[in-house]
Amino acid sequence: MTLAAGHPGFMSPTGVEIAFVLVGIATLGAALVTVTTKQLVHAALWLVVALGGFAVEYLLLTAEFIAWVQVLIYVGSVVVLLLFGLMLTKAPIGRSPDADSGNGWVALVVAVAAAATLVWVVVDAFRSTWVDLGGAAQGSAKVTGAILFRHWVLPFEALSVLLLAALVGAIVLSKRGAPARRSLLSKSEALPMRGVPSERKARES
Amino acid sequence: MTGTIHSLWTTAADSATPLDKIPTPKIEYAQLSPVLIVFGAAVLGILVEALLPRRSRYIAQLGVSVTGLAAAFAAIVALAADGYASAKSHIAAMGAVAVDGPALFLQGTIVLVALVAAFTFAERRLDPLAHGRRVDSFAAQGSTVPGSEQEKRAVRAGFTTTEVFPLLLFAVGGMMIFPAANDLLTLFVSLEVFSLPLYLLCALARRHRLLSQEAAVKYFLLGAFSSAILLFGVALLYGYAGTISYGGIADVISGTAKMTPALANTTANDSLLLIGGAMVVVGLLFKVAAVPFHMWTPDVYQGAPTPVTGFMAAATKVAAFGALLRLLYVVLPGIRWDWRPVMWGVAIATMVIGAIIAVTQTDVKRLLAYSSIAHAGFILAGVIALSPDGVSSVLFYLAAYSFVTLGAFAVVTLVRDAGGEATHLSRWAGLGRRSPLVAAVFAVFLLAFAGIPLTSGFAGKFAVFKAAAQGGAVPLVIIGVISSAIAAFFYIRVIVLMFFSEPQPGGPSVAVPSALTSTAIAAGVAVTLALGVAPQYFLDLAGKASVFVR
């Protein structure tokens, strides 16, 4: 961590800092709406705003690579997965007042405790540390890429092998090859059965 | 040491060099060839799956797997003969992996185990013919609901899951990198590379499919949990040392690293190091199935297809102990006074609890699972010795144990009744009268597990306990011998059951295997007896291979 020699005022209101705080407030608001709204789809969409807000914060901290990763992975795939999940499970669109599990207060306590811990840890760890964002580039895609493809090239390639194995495995577990006369089957047969086979009995205690 | 400490901090600091061109990383392809061959064979297997017609896939896959593994073993032997196990050992691939004695020895063991396991994977004569076709131990189609009409259709259509061979090879490749990994990132990635195919293979049993799927889900969830713990530990260690290369962390711990203000700040407090080191070790102890991280073992061993169980029990243990050895001997020797008492406790708990719970088991596969837990405890005793003898004895033990396990599970696949393998112990009563050869072979494996002289188990246990005693862990050795005695009780009980009780009417029959499983079992017996009767040559080999490069 590059420590700058001088020590600027702790809350000197530069433009970047003002933007940071404003985006932070917007992100916090979006997060609050996400957990309080009664409509599942709205919650998912507010989550996009909250996660996008994080990406903007990363950008403001000059960590552009992490910002794009945040957009790609969280905004791009996690939220899409969430929406697909809502779609595929035929969850009701619109207000769903009965979706409240009644654990709201417990969740609130846990959330506040977790937030308090995190804030305390961050404040305690970086109390008066001043990181000069204008110094040597650290979180840029350029630096990350150069290190990734030079020092970490073997783990990187091993990861690609992992993804290939995962791909093959997913196909093995989910492929439904069609036996020759599939089209002749009645519809009820083609549906997966839900009965519990007797195999359970073979289970050792 | 390559001299470069791959830290984002240091690299960012000297980024005055233009980054427009990334210098080509220096990769020693020849020294990585064993791993590259195995991964190449795996990719070839996938191409076979994609391009060849269904009928010819089985033969092609078996050929690709066996050829690839044999070539990888030849490459390992060539590297060892070239001196990479001793004089020329060094850190390769930009500091990612070590090419040294323990790495080559363990890679050789893993490849041989996988070669034998590939034979048991390919066995097709044990099950009765299904619709005129020979079938193996794997589900016709993984996605079908167990017991459904759809499943029957898939069997009728003659589907086979020949993808198990590429998955096996992927797992083997990951396992080969795992004990050679020389930084924590490579360690984590290779852990995932070998775990993921194993989760998948567990779910593909042809018989008892619900049990198999339950085993896979359990293994996946607990495995993901342990990976997360390991990853968290890696993050904490990085926070402590500012680097994740093994040598770099060891330098920071021993205080020989160049001190910078940031480093002085983080190393002022040891808690990051202790918690991070503990979490990484916990992640590895999950994989070696040490108590209290053993809960998944019996269920997974029982539910997985038996050839997979044999492979997993043997090869995972080799790879995970290899990584544990390197971590404790290369990265964390500086804080040995902190981790040794804890590892003592883990070793004692593993030996005693594994042996005692095994006594109450009534299923052969669960019995072998608890026995593997107890054996993990014995091996840990050697790991704790923290001496060259400790390393060589653990290497020897791993080689001996893996072949015994592989052989024992191969025998389990032979004893069958109408519902598939008859694994309940009561069904094994009188097996010695019905088929003396199979029972005798299983008895050899059980005696080796128990550590009876003239089997590899005795030589291994003797070496491990001797190293532990010389390392000052005499109480540990005493507890080890006592739990060996407890363990011997249930091994002998199975032998008595097989030879001295009346066969049940309508008991299981012993299937006549093809040359594939016969070869696997014969290899197991041969290694067990060879390492038991003449252990010295192999002990010397392990002794020569016991120096870690830093």
Automatic annotation (TrEMBL), chain A:
User: Where is the protein localized?
Assistant: Cell membrane
Protein keywords = Cell membrane, Membrane, NAD, Quinone, Transmembrane, Transmembrane helix
**A matching Pfam family:** Oxidored_q3
What the protein does? NDH-1 shuttles electrons from NADH, via FMN and iron-sulfur (Fe-S) centers, to quinones in the respiratory chain. Couples the redox reaction to proton translocation (for every two electrons transferred, four hydrogen ions are translocated across the cytoplasmic membrane), and thus conserves the redox energy in a proton gradient.
Organism, as annotated: Streptantibioticus ferralitis
The residues that cross the membrane are 18-36, 43-61, 67-89, 101-123, 152-173
- Recorded family membership: Belongs to the complex I subunit 6 family.
Q: Which coarse location class describes where this protein primarily resides?
A: membrane
Its membrane topology: Multi-pass membrane protein
Give the Enzyme Commission number. 7.1.1.-
Reactions the enzyme catalyzes: a quinone + NADH + 5 H(+)(in) = a quinol + NAD(+) + 4 H(+)(out)
Tell me where the signal peptide lies: none
The superkingdom of the source organism is Bacteria
Question: What is this protein called in UniProt?
Answer: NADH-quinone oxidoreductase subunit J
Query: What EC class is this?
Result: translocase
Automatic annotation (TrEMBL), chain B:
The signal peptide here is none
Q: Name one Pfam family in it.
A: Proton_antipo_M
Main localisation: membrane
Q: What is its EC number?
A: 7.1.1.-
Molecular function, one GO term: NADH dehydrogenase (quinone) (non-electrogenic) activity
Q: How does it sit in the membrane?
A: Multi-pass membrane protein
InterPro entries attached to this UniProt entry:
NADH-Q_OxRdtase_suN/2, ND/Mrp_TM
Reactions mediated catalytically: a quinone + NADH + 5 H(+)(in) = a quinol + NAD(+) + 4 H(+)(out)
**How is the quaternary structure described?**
NDH-1 is composed of 14 different subunits. Subunits NuoA, H, J, K, L, M, N constitute the membrane sector of the complex.
Tell me, what does this protein do in biology? NDH-1 shuttles electrons from NADH, via FMN and iron-sulfur (Fe-S) centers, to quinones in the respiratory chain. The immediate electron acceptor for the enzyme in this species is believed to be a menaquinone. Couples the redox reaction to proton translocation (for every two electrons transferred, four hydrogen ions are translocated across the cytoplasmic membrane), and thus conserves the redox energy in a proton gradient.
Name this polypeptide is given: NADH-quinone oxidoreductase subunit N
Q: Which organism is it from?
A: Streptantibioticus ferralitis
Tell me the lineage of the source organism: Bacteria, Bacillati, Actinomycetota, Actinomycetes, Kitasatosporales
The gene is nuoN
